[in-house]
Amino acid sequence: MYIPKDYEMNNIDTLIAYIKENSFGILVSEGKELINGTHLPFLVERSSDNNIKLISHMSKANQQWREINGEVLIIFSGAHMYISPTWYEEEGFVPTWDYQSVHVYGKYIPKNSPEDLREIMEKTIEYYEGFQTEPWNGKIPDHIYNRLIEGVVGFNIEVTDIQGQWKLHQDHPDSRKRKVVSALRELKNQDAGKIANEIEKIIEL
């Protein structure tokens, strides 16, 4: 990914936290005729020796998994906002966009034994149900569960590189950042609030 130096995010803890918060990523891989892409939920795990892997699954009917050969890319995106030059109250500027994005590169590892698939499903359900006030217990009769997993394929991504871009007006003075934050707050939408919060973190550094 092209990343201007001002916008580089190299802190692994921050990047992993971002993936967890924005875990519905896009798996991109080279196919036989086209570039394939599928939107999927991803879990991220980091071992004691700092190896990182992503965990996910997709429909067995999806041709992408059959065609994966070589390195894959997973794109994670979150809040993003259009920035109007009128917010600066200065001449000589044009519109721009503030956002955060993480690109993960790695090796696709199939995980399709019954034990692997059960582990992937249980981890996925446990993670996402953890956000519910009354989590589902995940109990499914074995005959139904076995029928369901026949329709999916599981996999890990052994991560070889993580790149993060935090484009949040780092190359502008704090006075201008504050004007952007103020204008974003007035928009009163969720993405605007998130980007405003991230810009404020930079001002406070």
Automatic annotation (TrEMBL):
InterPro entries reported for this sequence? Split_barrel_FMN-bd, TR_PAI2-type
Q: Per UniProt, what is one Pfam family of this protein?
A: FMN_bind_2
Q: Which SUPFAM superfamilies match?
A: FMN-binding split barrel (SSF50475)
The name of this protein is FMN-binding negative transcriptional regulator
Q: Which organism is it from?
A: Aliicoccus persicus
